């Protein structure tokens, strides 16, 4: 069966959600977000461990633009976001875990989960999106917000016949992986009172987080974020061996004799070290087909890094462009 929705957004992370919210604000109601995962949020990811929680993707957001700051201030008033730490640059967190905030942002948007788009093809009135289970969706306009290497795989399908120059632009974006160890501990940790440490750490370790001290978990659930170099070297090694290595390196901070459970999260596309200085790309085909996401930075962006704020700005810019093209 083929479903008809005028606007389909592939990917329900921050960029996809903000694009949908923008289109709604501009009067477009028939929008569908399609995401391969069990929840919206993408790299705004939270996992339950027993009665506790861990944010195992993005830990916090920072705001350098007025647009994002105003947005955050509204959610602070509403109670969903609070300042975690930091005087000059505040690190804001979702009070119930990153993923619940993503769900809240997407609550008025139609979403189809556990649906992976495998191909995009042209048809007479726009596009047909085909899932890896053979289901299909017809759309007049499509926005792709999956990480650039995955976007390229979708956009190079023969039926689209995109210019190779366009596809090469996506090759300019280079993502790095990140391995994250998730541990549920019986004993408290020696991390600072806010539960966050990202300096003076052993080689290979990027960040340590205690979610009980962070205020989102009743249990001592911790995350160990490894650097991209370390993650690259260990990416294909077995889970047990990688977790053992992480325990060895960080034993000064945690009592691993009290581990209740442990698991490994592998992010193949965590942060882009090479990105584009355009908030989205337009394929300029007859029917709108745009690409956006955190690696599409606004030319005015001063942080020079991919993050939740860059995804937020990119999603809004792509939503505005789609609305203009559909007029
Ligand atoms: C370990 C880690 C730590 C981080 N820490 C921070 C931090 O502390 N602060 C910060 O600001 N940023 C941080 N980031 C970066 C931040 O999470 C991202 O910049 C932001 O979430 C990206 O949003 P996005 O919408 O562009 O992409 P994503 O969140 O990746 O969303 C893309 C979505 O597309 C879906 N998808 C992919 N392929 C398909 C397909 N074929 N069909 C359907 N759906 C598909 C995915 O399931 C996903 O939901 C971190 C990222 C990681 C991984």
Automatic annotation (TrEMBL):
Superkingdom of origin: Bacteria
Gene3D superfamilies, alphabetized: 3.90.660.10, FAD/NAD(P)-binding domain
UniProt cross-references to Pfam families, sorted A to Z: Amino_oxidase, NAD_binding_8
Family annotation (InterPro entries): Amino_oxidase (IPR002937), FAD/NAD-bd_sf (IPR036188)
Domain Amine oxidase: 84-205
PANTHER family: FAD/NAD(P)-BINDING OXIDOREDUCTASE FAMILY PROTEIN (PTHR16128), FAD_NAD(P)-BINDING OXIDOREDUCTASE FAMILY PROTEIN (PTHR16128:SF5)
Protein name: Amine oxidase domain-containing protein
Gene source species: Paraliobacillus quinghaiensis
């Amino acid at each position: 069966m083929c479903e008809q929705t005028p606007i389909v957004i592939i990917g329900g992370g921050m960029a996809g959600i903000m694009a949908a919210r923008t289109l709604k604000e501009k009067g477009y109601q028939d929008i569908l977000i399609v995401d391969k995962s069990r929840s919206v949020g993408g790299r705004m990811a939270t996992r339950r461990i027993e009665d506790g929680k861990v944010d195992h993707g993005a830990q916090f957001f920072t705001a350098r633009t007025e647009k994002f700051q105003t947005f955050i201030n509204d959610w602070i008033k509403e109670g969903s976001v609070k300042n975690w730490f930091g005087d000059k640059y505040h690190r804001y967190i979702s009070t119930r875990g990153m993923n619940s905030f993503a769900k809240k942002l997407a609550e008025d948007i139609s979403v189809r989960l556990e649906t992976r788009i495998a191909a995009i093809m042209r048809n007479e009135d726009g596009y047909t999106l085909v899932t890896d289970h053979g289901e299909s969706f017809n759309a007049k306009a499509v926005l792709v917000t999956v990480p650039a290497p995955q976007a390229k795989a979708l956009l190079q399908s023969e039926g689209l016949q995109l210019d190779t120059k366009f596809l090469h632009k996506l090759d300019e974006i280079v993502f790095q992986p990140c391995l994250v160890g998730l541990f549920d501990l019986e004993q408290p940790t020696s991390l600072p009172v806010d539960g966050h440490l990202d300096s003076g750490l052993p080689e290979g370790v990027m960040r340590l987080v205690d979610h009980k001290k962070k205020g989102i978990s009743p249990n001592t659930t911790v995350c160990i974020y490894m650097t991209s170099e370390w993650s690259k070297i260990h990416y294909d090694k077995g889970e047990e061996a990688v977790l053992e290595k992480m325990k060895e390196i960080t034993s000064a901070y945690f009592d691993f004799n009290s581990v209740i459970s442990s698991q490994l999260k592998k992010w193949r596309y965590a942060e882009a070290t090479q990105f584009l200085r355009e908030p989205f790309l337009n394929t300029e085909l007859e029917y709108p087909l745009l690409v956006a996401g955190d690696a599409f930075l606004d030319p005015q962006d001063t942080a020079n890094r991919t993050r939740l704020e860059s995804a937020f700005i990119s999603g809004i810019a792509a939503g505005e462009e789609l609305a203009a093209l559909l007029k």
